[in-house]
Specification:
helicase activity, five-stranded mixed beta sheet
Length: 192
Amino acid sequence: ELKVSRMTNFGTLKQGESKRMIIWIENKGRIPQSLISCRLAGWVKDKQFSVEIPQKCENSPEAYLSSIPINQENLSKAEINSFNNDGGTTCESLNHTSIMKNGVIPDENLQNGESEQKDDMEQPIKHSNITAEIVIPPGEKIFVVIICTAVIQGHSKELLLLGFSDFTVGRYIEATVTNEEELLIAPVQPFS
């Protein structure tokens, strides 16, 4: 039996903003499971969503975070441990410096005006598709990282496909993208 994170909605992002979300895959069964593919169905164009698969040595959020060359001082050990103790039924999200209450947090690099592409080049991460299978022993869990870079305005829905030896698990990935002009004319209270 496998448990895969179910909460996969990024919420509302401003155009140009980027957020990361961790999807946990936990083997609750008695036999090892092999993740042989991890990809997006390709429903959303312009690379609004992408997948990062941490290297084998990065089987924890701590190792993943340490591979990203930015300031981590605000991310406490307790916050990281809360991810490790997760039962696998909800999605946990983190970025390099903070965790927000709704489970999805902004990518600080983009808010500081740095390029997401530059950041990606420095990370030792596999993108989009798995080339070799990843074995999940009984009682263990792994994670993949979904990145939403808000480029397409409106509501976007993508399908994440996790392929195992004899079955596939799918999760919808969703985000709503707005721009500054829309926020300026948005109603401040309900019409009565």
